Amino acid sequence: MRRTAITAALVVGLVAAGAGTASAANPAKADRALDRALKDLVGGDGPPGAIAVIQRGDRRRVHSAGVANVATGARPRARHQMRIASAAKAFSGGVALTLVDEGVLSLDDTIGERLPGLPAQWHAVTLRQLLAHTSGLPDFSQSPAFRQAVGASPTVAPPPAQLLTYVADKPLEFQPGSTYAYSNSDNVAAALMVQAVTGTSYEAALRDKVLRPLGMRHTGIPVGTLLASPYIHGYDPAEGGELGDVTQDVAMGGWAWASGGIVSTPAEMNVFVRGYVGGALFGKSVQKQQVRLVKGASSEPRGPGKNSAGLSLFRYRTRCGTVFGHTGNTPGYTQLIAANRTGRRSVAFTINLQYSRVDGLLGELRKAETKAVCAALARR
Predict the structure, then answer these.
(1) Domain range spanning residue 113?
(2) pLDDT of 192-223, one tens digit each?
(3) What is the 3-state secondary structure (H, E, C) of the chain?
(4) What's the whole-model pTM score?
């Protein structure tokens, strides 16, 4: 029964910038406000633990509250592994946009050109539309057949190329480019394009184009369910108010893959978002394309402040200033990564509970996330 509940949660919520700081507080005050917010967030009906890595220039601080493991009482640490949920979509964006910068891919490349084996009715969809969630591709994670497959084999997933077969008989949900709709299928299709043009696996391209250049040694897509110890345990509320450890219940690397299957650490998530937003992976012309925004489109879950969507990136306008990044949620975890436009001020924020499993938690979470952004943007 426990695993059935978790796989149901998985398929419902698989996943799921400028730098003005005019109203940002001074660093010491902002840090204290963040510490209070984290303490208020954990316990009760909230997550067992929370951690925020804040970096202002070369100075990095780690703020945490609660526990990473309810059995031992161990606190969450920046070096501990965890599932990053739909923040993985920023990584697939990083790989694809790096290849665009190199001229190997184009934002105008279509599914028909790069993936002719996919349904003909999808062939006009471009890479740009996939990364912007304006493709119209039906979301494989919402398919009843996908849900049944996960429930039948949660720890062993099919090859990633099979994920889109769950919706291969479905037409586009709208004319490509006409509207915004968050879909896990978009990043899977983008990753398949990466494989098609590189002749390697997406995992290899991720390593070569993103992880190695940024010096990330503890990030990747696991094959099975196991995480390397020590890790931040992910929890799910059970009947009677108890928490169940769901960290290793589902092979997310297979069932979510490029849309949500990456494992990383808070420290390396901070490294990634600084490089991804700040221009370490691709040049200014691609960066400009990335921040052509769809106003009113929000990440899943909704991030702090006012949300707008770019290419595998969201802009969050808060009371303390503007940052760019991505959120994510999956059984056991909710994530936010964000940085200002230069990448010099950043935040990686994690709780070890899926926000949607607790009524009313999103509002409190977004308040704490805003405090984290304010701490990252604080000025002396």
Answers:
(1) 2-377
(2) 999 999 999 999 999 999 999 999 999 999 99
(3) CHHHHHHHHHHHCCCCCCCCCCCCCCHHHHHHHHHHHHHHHCCCCCCCEEEEEEEECCEEEEEEEECCCCCCCCCCCCCCEEECHHHHHHHHHHHHHHHHHCCCCCCCCEHHHHCCCCCHHHCCCEHHHHHHCCCCCCCHHHCHHHHHHHHHCCCCCCCHHHHHHHHCCCCCCCCCCCCCCCCHHHHHHHHHHHHHHHCCCHHHHHHHHHHCCCCCCCCECCCCCCCCCCECCCEEECHHHCEEECCCCCCHHHHCHHHCCCEECHHHHHHHHHHHHHCCCCCHHHHHHHCCCEECCCCCCCCCCEEEECCCCEEEEECCEEEEEEEEEECCEEEEEEECCCCCEEEEEEECECHHHCCCHHHHHHHHHHHHHHHHHCCC
(4) 0.93
